[in-house]
Amino acid sequence: MKAYVALALAAPMLVTAQQSMWGQCGGIGWTGPTACNPPAGCSTLNPYYAQCLSTTGGATTTRTTTTTSRTMTTTTRTTTPATTTTTSRTTTTTSRTTTGNPPTGTGLDALIKGKGKKYVGFCADSGLLSNAQNAAILQAESGQLTPENSMKWQSIEPSQNSFSYGGADTLVNWAVSNNKIIRGHTFVWHSQLPSWVSNINNKATLTTVIQNHINAVAGRYKGKIYAWDVANEVFNDDGTRRSSVFSNVFGDWTFLDVAFRAARAADPAAKLCLNDYNLDYSGAKLTNFVQLVKDLIARGVPIDCVGTQSHLVVGNGAIPSFKTTLDSLASTGLEVQITELDIRTNSSPSSAQISQQVRDYTSVVSACMKTAACSGITVWGVSDKDSWVPQTFSGQGYALLWDNNYQKKQAYNGFVTGINS
């Protein structure tokens, strides 16, 4: 870690940019700055992710120098008396061992980092962060936070050019102060969209609006976001393009080109993702999603990752073949992220359903662990008490890893088994 700082100090003309505290500074596929602004140093957490972290009390560099003396005796014989020459040679070997800051936390995130993945994350917002029980679990178990609602367009720009950053700022500040990375969620989505955007019917106007919105939001949090869901849920379940103000006004997929390019310009260091749900089945939606991503890459659109939400149902037949789903997404050549995992069942499940839920969590997590491109898993909530499921699916719930009283469920053990698989 200190080697990066030393290089920056010794040869400043070679360094074109430096990351601030908490920013990414390395990892598979990383093309951004690899040096950090002092007093931060670049700490490798796993092959996918290195982060600028404080060097104070956290990193040590040990230099060991070994000196070896060798004496060589050479005897030269001629017709005259033998001549003996003695040569003394000294070799000095220096080895350097650098120990970086270890991953923080003692729970799922630390466990998955130890297996070479990037993070276990959870969604949250200001209300959940102010809940001491919920916050304590996030501090101990998570390495990443995703805003559940506070960064959606309706929340953050309800009126044109009038931004409401309070909720998003709360989440970002909490995450940064607790050494968590952040997935930004989301820019272009057909839902939770203010009416002033939905009512636009001119392509040039909508292009400017998309660019301005992304520039403002991504620019505000530049350097603090690991990855953005630039676009969300752009497909219908039958694999056709979803009807939205974006697809209808543009008439094709090029609204994605506008959004991804705007995001890259606003925050060049952030990874840019396309996210969708019901990609868990081998069908037209998954096939067309993968093809769209390949098309975006082919025409030079900056995209770094794909996300499968993974809102699943206990006992679903697609779960045992989840590895196949991840392999299909990995065929894009991009980083794959499980972005909104929960596995719901009846609100009052039977013991058989609980046991099946444990197996299902194991299957999904294990599939990620066995897929090199799968970098991390975000669970869509901490406690069943705060889950979106009961409000959306009548009679269903029990989808998360902690119960209504913030006690670990058997599903937590299934998640751990999956990590260790």
Question: Could you give a short description of this structure?
Answer:
By secondary structure, this protein is of the alpha/beta class. Helices cover 34% and strands 26% of the residues.
Describe the structure.
- This protein has 421 residues and is an alpha/beta fold.
- It is built from 15 helices and 15 strands.
- Strands 6-7-8-9-10-11-13-14 form an eight-stranded parallel barrel, surrounded by six helices. A three-stranded antiparallel beta sheet has the order 1-3-2.
- Helix 8 packs parallel to helix 10, helix 12 packs parallel to helix 13 and helix 13 packs parallel to helix 15.
- This is Beta-xylanase.
> What order do the SSEs take from the amino end to the carboxyl end, as H and E?
HEEEEEHEHHEHHEHHEHHEHEEHEHEHEH
Strand arrangement across the biggest beta sheet: 6-7-8-9-10-11-13-14
**Largest β sheet strand count, sense and barrel closure:** 8 strands, parallel, barrel
| Secondary-structure class | alpha/beta
Distance between the termini: 31 Å
Binned, the helix content reads 25-40%
> Measured on Cα atoms, how large is the radius of gyration?
26 Å
Arithmetic mean pLDDT: 84
Strand portion:
25-35%
Please tally the helical runs, counting DSSP H or I stretches of 4 or more residues.
Answer: 15
Bulk shape? globular
- The stretches of 5 or more residues where confidence is low (pLDDT under 50) are 1-16, 54-105
The total count of strands amounts to 15
Keywords: Carbohydrate metabolism, Glycosidase, Hydrolase, Polysaccharide degradation, Secreted, Signal, Xylan degradation
Main location: secreted
Subcellular location: Secreted
Pfam families: CBM_1, Glyco_hydro_10
